[in-house]
């Protein structure tokens, strides 16, 4: 997988190809992009189009369906669908015929590159289920590392499965993940409600080396980052999260003012997080309305993080700042999060949309 050659199909009027009968789609065929020598010109672009055949085909969706993009199986190509959940974007790969991902972490990192690849926050594989589940979801972050779970990703995963299996309307799936059993349910309105399971608060399981309280949790503890003490609460949703509402003795955070790219990596790689961490910076508007920005482990600043929004509500409840049912605003839009008292499970509801269909040579 050196130069990028891609065929893409863009749904023009709706994210859900099969649910429409009269919408149109464009497809463009093989774009070939090669690297230019760095000194080629003072304002040299880093890519040049060396051979382009760009054709606009507009075809009715019904005509396209039997020979669906998703049914393509040409050897030597990776066929994918790009999805996003509130701008947290993923390359979805149909991997139902094998229990190992079709591509390596290094290949995934190349595909995620926003300049030299397709561009995404991660690559998600739909694999056969194990232990009585319907499917297994695995994911590589854009740096090639493999997280245990992805909240926005599992909503995209559910919509991807529905499309692969040609399912309409309400459907739920049992999905095996690195965080255990996760159950997304596609609702009538197309949004996906996910039973995200129980939060993990035990410090050694998050994992964090920060000193724990008597109940082994880390709630509102001081974390020194470059000489500034931040109050943090650590929550695992299968993957680790460090949630902060501000610095010790400081005002309520104004998250838009944060220099996320400077501070984010310092949290991510802090010595107290042996598995690195995702970090959420949170502003409280009301006890049921929060706003967050996230710096993700292995992906940097993203427009949304589903597991992060769940961790934020857990932290806000534990710190006495919010109720159990909250709207969490993220840069890409809002998520509805509920931490149910009766079963300790967290439920996340939000959208998942197709961006385009594509193929790349492997
Ligand atoms: N964006 C995701 C989380 C993806 C994994 C994360 N970067 C990690 O390494 O834990 C979400 O929506 O939850």
UniProtKB/TrEMBL annotation:
Keywords: Amino-acid biosynthesis, Isomerase, Lysine biosynthesis. Signal peptide: none annotated. InterPro entries: DAP_epimerase_AS, DAP_epimerase_DapF. It is an enzyme of class 5 (isomerase). It catalyses: (2S,6S)-2,6-diaminopimelate = meso-2,6-diaminopimelate. It comes from the Eukaryota. GO terms for biological process: lysine biosynthetic process via diaminopimelate. Its EC number is 5.1.1.7. GO terms for cellular component: chloroplast; cytosol. Belongs to the diaminopimelate epimerase family. PANTHER family: DIAMINOPIMELATE EPIMERASE, DIAMINOPIMELATE EPIMERASE, CHLOROPLASTIC. This is diaminopimelate epimerase. The lineage of its organism: Eukaryota, Viridiplantae, Streptophyta, Embryophyta, Tracheophyta.
